[in-house]
Amino acid sequence: MVYQPAAGARDLLPLDVAQKRWIEERLQQVFHRWGYHRIITSTLERMDTLMAGEAIQRHKVIQLQNGQDEELGLRPELTASIARTVVTRMVDDIYPQRLYYNANVFRRNWERRHNRQQEYYQAGVELIGSGSLLANAEILTLVANCLEALGLDSWHLILGEAGITTSLLKAFPMNIRSQVRNAIANLDSVTLDTLSLTEELHQRAKMMLDLRGDSKDVLQKVSSLALDADQQEAVKNLKSLVELLESESKFSLILDLSLIQTIDYYTGIVFEIVSDINGQAQVLGSGGRYDQLLGLYHPQGKNIPGIGFELSIDDLYQILASSQQLPQSIPASNWLVVSTSENVDAAAFAYAQKLRDSTHLVRVEMDLGEKDTEAIRQYARDRSITQIAWINSDGTPTIEAVR
Fold first, then answer.
1. Could you give the C-alpha distances from 370 to 133, 335, 345, 363, 376, in angstroms and in order?
2. Distance separating alpha carbons of residues 204 and 139, to the nearest angstrom
3. Helix or strand or coil: residue 115?
């Protein structure tokens, strides 16, 4: 029907926008304080850009076709787009690059459920050009600062390490490895029991399923395995990061080496930010390290390390809506300027502009000449406008405080 939005789409009314902006502005202030700069990438991307490094599953992309039969898709996330932009447009810039975004993303309603949402809003950052422990710590501390700025304190960080988990999976036969991975990712012990594995590999799979909880316990369990030199180094780096994070009292940390993101380009730490409000666990955002993704777009195939995260504006809104922190009304205008006769319309416009030219924001409305005096006063009361400027026949204003 022409009067309905497309399935999975929605309209944001002025109060919705004011509440969304409240969240975005507080996140943006944090990003600026940390030295991050906003980047805006194309809403449309070539499908080969989106699919590079298996960044997203094809069936989740809303696809379009242009006149040249080029496969295009609406971006389902921002990291791939930013990676492409950095290596093609910012190749001569100084690293590290600290970039942030605030954008809409689109994911196909592939479950075919009626009116399932297909447009989402995200804010996030990408730190490009450093693979250090301090870069990891910066991103995770930045997450904590963002949630603190929003007044959220009931949350925890689930931290995994894709490199360690992927290397531990190499012990399983190639033909069954993906099934083991999916079972671990979904905490599916029943499926693990049905797989054709040796007793040793069954025990290894169950152990990987249990690598979750207190950081000291998890690190002790994984360290007890027969690890090669690279795995030992990765565990050592993870331990150093955990110790650094736990020195900050603002972190509630769960170490989870069974955390495997569906996006395949992660090569190091991966994490989820989970809300604990009202005893309901809700994922508010996620991120991780991707040290080989940019090489897929680089003309010479050069790998540039990167790490980032995204926060769901939609999910943050749901959490904050119950706390009454969000604006409960749209901003009211400060002034209503009214012409008392047609021959002073120009003077009324000039006076309204004089008010708007203040060094601070002043909201000024013009009466459009379709109401009587009492209706004008009632309109001002209904809209919480505090002052009316009546422009007299000689062009001078008479100021009335609205009661």
1. 65, 17, 13, 21, 9
2. 31
3. coil
What is the pTM assigned to this prediction? 0.88
Q: What is the DSSP string of 161-173?
A: EHHHHHHHHTTS-
Residue in the structure block whose two tokens are 């006063």:
377
- The token duo for 103 is 């954008």
List of long-range contacts for 210-218, beta carbons under 8 Å, 24+ apart:
210/258, 211/255, 211/256, 211/257, 211/258, 212/254, 212/255, 212/256, 212/257, 212/258, 212/259, 213/254, 213/255, 213/256, 214/255, 215/242, 215/246, 215/253, 215/254, 215/255, 218/255, 218/256, 218/257
Give the 3-state secondary structure of residue 131: coil
Half-sphere exposure of 295 (CA within 13 A, CB side): 10
Alpha-carbon dihedral sign for residues 27, 29, 33, 39? positive
SS3 10: coil
Report d(CA 282, CA 274) in Å as an integer. 5
Peptide bond into 96 cis (omega under 30): yes
Backbone phi, then psi, for 57, in 5-degree steps?
-80, 135
Q: Which helix (H) or strand (E) holds 398?
A: strand 397-401
**Predicted confidence (pLDDT) per residue in 71-121, tens digit:** 899 999 999 999 999 998 887 788 999 999 999 999 887 555 555 788 999
Element (H, E) at 319: helix 313-321
Q: Can you give the pLDDT at residue 264?
A: 67
Q: 143: closest CA among 156, 161, 134, 131?
A: 156
Residue 262 confidence (pLDDT) above 60: no
Q: What is the largest CA-CA distance in the chain?
A: 97
Residue 168 to residue 225: CA distance in whole angstroms: 9
Give tens-digit pLDDT for 148-194. 999 998 899 999 998 888 888 888 888 888 888 888 877 888 888 88
